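> forwarded from #structure-qc
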């Protein structure tokens, strides 16, 4: 087996090496190196690509990587793992979702552009390694709003790799899956066009770290390593999956404080109260009833809201599936 390289990290069989992927310079001429890891197994097997921190304020994926890597024994690994964390180098420095240098969102710029803006160049550099891989995980979260832990399949049901992506999403082992073709430039949509099954685990949503979401992410990465035979072991999978194929978003008409009678993950029936906006003294101003059956998927982090601000979204068009391996 050969060296496994990403950026300046070059691991011989049985080694873990860390390094940097060099992407240009800051305004003062300081050279930028995005942190990378290469973990090379001792026998042949699949190459898994993982990236975290594509959105610079989404830290749970970075928490997953820093917990998983010390647990790995490359002496038992078949195949290899290459990791970039955090990909949005500049956003991470400033707790910003987008890259502050070009105001672009990384997950709308894949496969990137060699001579483009900084985010396009970061995506281009990362995508070079995605294309060499057999499977890819793009660790995200619902930014700093409150969201359930879920995994997204972004290729659309017509895509030739849809079922492989859905299988990978199920293997990650989180019960909730969102299966809908994503916008242009998403890694989980673009990489399957290059033949790489890719999913976008969304590990909750919070400011800082959420231990529970990180725990699910760690188990998710281990599940992928076990299921695809990179490591010996059995994935821990739920008995059934709840799959939503649409979101319905709700916006405030009135300004005030929001009260939810239900919690994230709760199912709501048509006609039931979804939320009420009160004034500062608790007097109700607007009560919104759900027009549709759905699951409370995401809600705003702050309790106050102005007219036109998003309050929450439901996962709708849901169905339940089990796990069936693709041979
Ligand atoms: Zn994200």
């Amino acid at each position: 087996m050969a060296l496994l390289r990403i950026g300046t990290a070059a691991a011989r069989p049985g080694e873990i090496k860390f390094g940097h992927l060099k992407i240009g310079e800051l305004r003062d001429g300081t050279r930028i190196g995005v942190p990378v890891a290469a973990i090379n197994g001792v026998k042949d097997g699949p190459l898994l690509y993982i990236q975290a921190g594509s959105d610079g304020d989404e830290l749970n994926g970075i928490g997953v990587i820093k917990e998983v890597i010390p647990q790995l024994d490359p002496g038992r690994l078949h195949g290899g793992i290459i990791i970039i964390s955090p990909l949005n180098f500049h956003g991470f420095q400033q707790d910003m979702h987008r890259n502050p240098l070009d105001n672009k969102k990384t997950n709308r710029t894949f496969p990137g552009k060699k001579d483009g803006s900084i985010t396009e160049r970061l995506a281009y550099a990362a995508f070079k390694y995605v294309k060499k891989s057999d499977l890819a995980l793009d660790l995200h979260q619902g930014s700093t709003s409150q969201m359930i832990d879920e995994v997204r399949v972004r290729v659309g049901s017509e895509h030739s790799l849809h079922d492989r992506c859905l299988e990978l999403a199920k293997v990650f082992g989180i019960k909730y899956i969102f299966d809908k073709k994503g916008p242009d430039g998403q890694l989980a949509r673009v990489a399957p066009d290059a033949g790489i099954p890719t999913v976008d685990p969304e590990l909750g949503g919070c400011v800082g770290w959420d231990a529970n979401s990180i725990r699910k992410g760690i188990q998710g990465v281990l599940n992928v390593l076990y299921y695809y035979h990179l490591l010996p072991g059995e994935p821990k999978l739920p008995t059934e999956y709840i799959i939503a194929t649409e979101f319905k978003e709700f916006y405030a008409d009135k300004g005030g404080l929001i009260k939810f009678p239900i919690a994230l993950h709760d199912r709501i029936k048509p006609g039931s109260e979804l939320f009420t906006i009160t004034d500062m003294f608790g007097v109700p101003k607007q009560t919104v009833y759900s027009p549709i059956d759905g699951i409370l998927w995401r809600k705003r982090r702050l309790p106050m809201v102005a007219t036109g601000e998003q309050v929450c979204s439901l996962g709708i068009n849901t169905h339940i599936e089990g796990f069936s391996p693709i041979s």
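QC bot note: Residues 54-55, 58, 107, 140 surround zinc ion (CB under 6 Å). The domain at 247-321 is CATH 2.40.50.100 (OB fold (Dihydrolipoamide Acetyltransferase, E2P)).
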